[in-house]
Amino acid sequence: MTIKPLIILPDPILRQVSQPLEAINDEARRLADDMLETMYDAPGIGLAAIQIGVPRRMLVLDVSKEGEEKTPLVFINPEIIASSDQRSVYEEGCLSIPDYYAEVERPAGITVRYLDRDGREQTIEADGLLATCLQHEIDHLNGVLFIDHISKLKRDMVIRKFTKASKTRGAKAI
Ligand code: NI
């Protein structure tokens, strides 16, 4: 397992639409393991493959509480097949937008169909934090970031801040 470098805003890679995985083979499982390793190291509770530069429809999650046993979850080619009318608000962050948090409103409950790391089709009904995380990560597979769900004013501010920071990083590298 390898910890991979994270892709950070405003890198255009984050806006790519990821493609389905055709085969769940050893290479796919290695990708899942690298993603989990990278997520735990960050530390974070969710990661999409595109955040380590791989445009494939795979995401990993672990929403277990601190002190509880780790429960790593792998979702391949996930699809939201139902959403509740009821909505909920969570303060979200993203490993690709470090140290920025904002409240986002989303459906409170969703049903997701996906393949697990053994390639078996599964369906999960999620609510609470798991529902929010799944929607956040599935957004990543479509090139959507959580800042797309906040006001344009706030979004422009955070993009400006990260664009400036990325230019400074570039200057230091020279
Ligand atoms: Ni994210």
Highlighted features:
alpha+beta; two-stranded antiparallel ribbon; Peptide Deformylase; five-stranded antiparallel β-sheet; 3 helices; about 170 residues; about 30% helix; binds nickel (II) ion; 7 strands
What does this entry look like structurally?
The protein is an alpha+beta fold and 174 residues long. It has three helices and seven strands, in the order H-E-E-E-E-E-E-E-H-H. The protein has a single domain, classed as Peptide deformylase (Peptide Deformylase). The strands form two sheets. It has a five-stranded antiparallel beta sheet. Strands 4-5 form a two-stranded antiparallel sheet. The chain is globular, with a radius of gyration of 16 Å. The two termini are 31 Å apart. The model has no long low-confidence stretch (mean pLDDT 95). The structure holds nickel (II) ion. The site of nickel (II) ion has 5 residues, from helix 2. Nickel (II) ion binds next to helix 2.
